[in-house]
């Protein structure tokens, strides 16, 4: 059974988007806000050691299995890397709310934390997939963590909630492929009419409504992203 939708419905997000066609055109424009956090060379031995110290042998084994997946996928082409990473994390990670996992309303976990807990919400799935693909050499400019409104319930219900997915762009103006913890397969954006994009970001910037500069205050959102990037560096990523 697919994981239930992420319980992000109480977060304030910019107004509803106008669908994926609008969003692809927006991403072809200039970058908006540069985050300014560089990624250090990975030390995966340190990551696995910290997993053992903090969470025990089972967590270290989970990180080891993830490392093996990344190593095995190294020679694949990009589309095969997407599939390998998406399948691994969707199958090995249970969906749960931050309040249940971390006793916080909104916590963005590092891949180490997600692997160790074997659970996460939509942001945690997306972050772990993003970092796995970056380790596999997929350029940051091809990857965006995308906040969307996800339609829930019967078609035409009009009920939606906030959700995060990972988008892969073969070229800047291409239709993205969507990696989602709610479904097992990777689909083009046009095959996800249930998702309405709001804004996107990666380790290089934030894009909102196609503007050349941000039209929304990114401080709260990017402070969490900046925090998780810094914690990942401390953990070896």
From TrEMBL:
<dbReference type="InterPro" id="IPR010319">
    <property type="entry name" value="Transglutaminase-like_Cys_pept"/>
</dbReference>
<dbReference type="Pfam" id="PF06035">
    <property type="entry name" value="Peptidase_C93"/>
</dbReference>
<dbReference type="InterPro" id="IPR038765">
    <property type="entry name" value="Papain-like_cys_pep_sf"/>
</dbReference>
<protein>
    <submittedName>
        <fullName>Transglutaminase</fullName>
    </submittedName>
</protein>
């Amino acid at each position: 059974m697919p994981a239930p939708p992420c319980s992000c419905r109480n977060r304030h997000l910019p107004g509803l988007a106008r669908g994926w066609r609008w969003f692809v055109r927006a991403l072809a424009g200039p970058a908006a806000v540069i985050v300014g956090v560089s990624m250090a060379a990975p030390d995966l031995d340190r990551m696995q050691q910290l997993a053992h110290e903090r969470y025990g042998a089972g967590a270290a084994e989970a990180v080891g299995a993830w490392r093996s997946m990344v190593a095995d996928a190294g020679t694949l082409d990009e589309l095969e890397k997407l599939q390998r990473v998406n399948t691994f994390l969707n199958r090995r990670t249970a969906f749960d709310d931050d309040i249940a996992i971390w006793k916080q309303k909104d916590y963005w976990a590092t891949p180490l934390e997600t692997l160790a807990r074997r659970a996460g919400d939509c942001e945690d799935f997306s972050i772990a997939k993003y970092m796995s693909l970056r380790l596999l050499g997929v350029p940051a400019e091809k990857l965006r963590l995308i906040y969307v409104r996800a339609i829930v319930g019967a078609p035409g219900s009009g009920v939606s909630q906030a959700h995060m997915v990972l988008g892969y762009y073969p070229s800047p103006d291409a239709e993205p492929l969507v990696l989602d913890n709610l479904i097992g397969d990777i689909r083009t954006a046009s095959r996800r009419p249930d998702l309405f994009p709001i804004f996107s970001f990666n380790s290089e910037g934030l894009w909102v409504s196609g503007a050349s500069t941000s039209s929304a205050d990114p401080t709260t959102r990017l402070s969490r992203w900046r925090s998780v990037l810094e914690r990942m560096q401390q953990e070896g990523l």
